[in-house]
Amino acid sequence: MDEELLELQRQFEFAQQAKSSIRLSDRNVVELVQKLQELQIIDFDLLHTTSGKEYITPEQLRSEIVSEINKRGRVSLIDLADTTGVDLYHVEKQSQRVVSDDSSLMLINGEIISNSYWDTVSEEINERLQECSQISLAEIAAQLQVGSELIVSVLEPRLGTLVKGRLEGGQLYTPAYVARVSAMVRGAARGIAVPMNLSALWSSLQVLLQDMDGFSGVAVESSFFQSLFNGLVKGGEILGSVRAGVHWTPSNSFISYDALHKLGIPQPIQFLQSRYPEGKPLATIFAHGSLIEMLDAAVEDAIESGSWIDSLTILPASFTPQDASKILSLCPSVQKALKSSKAQLLGESYVFSDVLVKVAPEDAQDYVDRAPRNTSAPTINDVRVVWGFDVSRLNLFDNIEKELENLNVSGFNTAGLSEGSHPTKNATHGHDDSSSLADPDEYDNQNVISKSASEKGSKKKKGKATGNAKAGSAESVPESQEPTGTKSKKKIKKGKVIPAVQVSDSKSGGKRDNARMDDPGFLSEESLIQKIMSLIPDLEEQGMEDPEIVLAPLANYLRPMLLNSWMERRKAAFTENAQKMKRVFDNLQRKLDEGFLNIQLYEKALDLFEDDQSTAVLLHKHLLRTAATPIVDALLVNLDIHNKLRNGIQVEESQNPESASMSSADRISLAKGIPGPLSVKAIGLVETLEGKRVESFMNAVREFAEESGLMLKKLDKKLERTLLHSYRKDLTSQVSAETDPVSLLPKVVSLLYVQVHGKALQAPGRAISVAIAKLKDKLDDIAFKTLADYQSAAVTLLSLISAGTGNEEDCTSDRILSKRKLLKGSMPVLKSLVLGSSSQS
To answer: By its UniProt entry, which PANTHER family does this protein fall under (predicted)?
Structure first.
């Protein structure tokens, strides 16, 4: 059996591959088909294609039409004729048969449309409706190129399912929009106290809606308002009667007690309660329950929209603030909102949504997400959404709190390093306690470290002094403007000066400090009211007659939360800055130890020139400029940083914050910024830098240190020998490595003074000749002549350079070159003059 099948397959393949010797033309095929139809061998209908080269059966044509409808949902007959290649007459005939056989299809205006297409269109309309709140049917019909009647017939069965909306008067509305307009109609109708034509009321509501929605909103037809109004009247939400469809006569839902007194009724409340048990007695008025429902709806809308409302603008004019407060307490939405902290009742008649007062960012976004959208989808940064309030003003608490971040964390202008640092007389010890640096470890307790006043002479210090400031060892002496420098050893012992802890002198003083800290002026009631007014500038425009009086309770509500937030940030900032303050204090103490020991060492060499007044002035000024100025700069800059850190200001840490050059005006400015009496000491210290005596600076820096609690190391014999040895060793290495003939001279002179007098001399260029002259009696004639000749040649070289271009590198005259060559040749001799002596010693 298998062999027979294989043989048949081979024969079939051979027949397929064999070429026919007879070919039929298109005309022969047509005639053949006609002959077969005449012989009734083909007993079914055949349709010609427009090309004339193909036949298609009606069944196949219907199948292709159905396939095209399923693919596109909506297709025109003309497009079907082009797609199938069949004449329009046959396509239209077969399309009618397809539509008649399938109830889910419709043939309208030459188009076949399926229910699935309308389902998809309905879903798109619903998405757009939820964004825009309202859509005109005429607009939808124009976009779909169909009639409005067809749109209505298609959307009506899909309302409530695929389309979440309400169709009214040629407009499509969302349920939220319908509820919103219904609330407006209900509130407006309940606010009418006299007969009124409803047409005028609908016109007012149309203007109000257009103002709220802007140009993107669709004008609401009066029939829509009328339909909602009729439903409210029928449901009993509005009391009154309508005549001729437009004349509205409201039922009076309240009566004053005075009116009943005039009628001779002595107990109006009992009288009204017996006849109207559903009514509610207020302060001066008896109100019907419908009035409470009206106000409750308006208040609920304000709370949900994150806005505020004045109930007196909703209630009739005869209501007093006491009546408004009482009726608000009866509103279920107010009771629920107060219980859940979603609203605040202020000034008897005002209700503020907590969204406006304080709301989390995710809740604010939720209000945007739930808001009916216009054509452009709003975000959290949009200025207005359909809720009717500015999203940007959400959360008064956060907006005010953000501004606090830009303020000094201390909340008030502290005087600097210690709060309340004015000196207070100590009755027990009889001396003044001065302001000083704060101990970072005890900073949260507001303890202030101060230097206890020490008595002169041999008297013992009174009281026990404590503190955390320790004298750091002098690791290196900063180089001055002269090329010489010193380095102090790390084994130097710590000084004996210990600062004292300044304790509050009385309980009342501590209470004043705490009160000032807990009651910053920038969070006062007046300041908060002004800030709220700036955040919501439209309060007066929206009917608030006296915003300042109404906002006072709101300010008092916000103030504890803002104060608590400020205190937490202040505590966090102080905690973070405590370690920084300690590092600043330790770094300052280390630099002060090094600088003050060095200037004491250099000061001893000045005694050798007291007989030459002009030279002494030069040396004193030079020492003030090179050694005293860095000390003052370090004190002022580090104390300024310490003060900022203490006040909670973030400061970038730096190893050498005072490295930038400062002018005298800069120093005076920093000195004035230091708190209390310490500022006066600082200004005096800065002024000594312009003086002519180092002794004045030394006295000023001692007074400053005593006032601030810093320690100063006294240069004793042991420290002096250690520093001098280090200074001599450093100079020796500098002289040995020096290659510039001019720079060599001052270093050699300084080293000679160490070798001859045992003094560390810091001399400017103008005083070198005098310094050399004073060595005449201490050196042999050959050594002195070598030194004097070298100094004379150096002065000549500098004079030539100064008379030329002023740049030593650019001077190439013969005289300059010869002088330079002479000096270079003399350098080994000059170096041997000191290095030989140094090596021998």
So the answer is: E3 UFM1-PROTEIN LIGASE 1
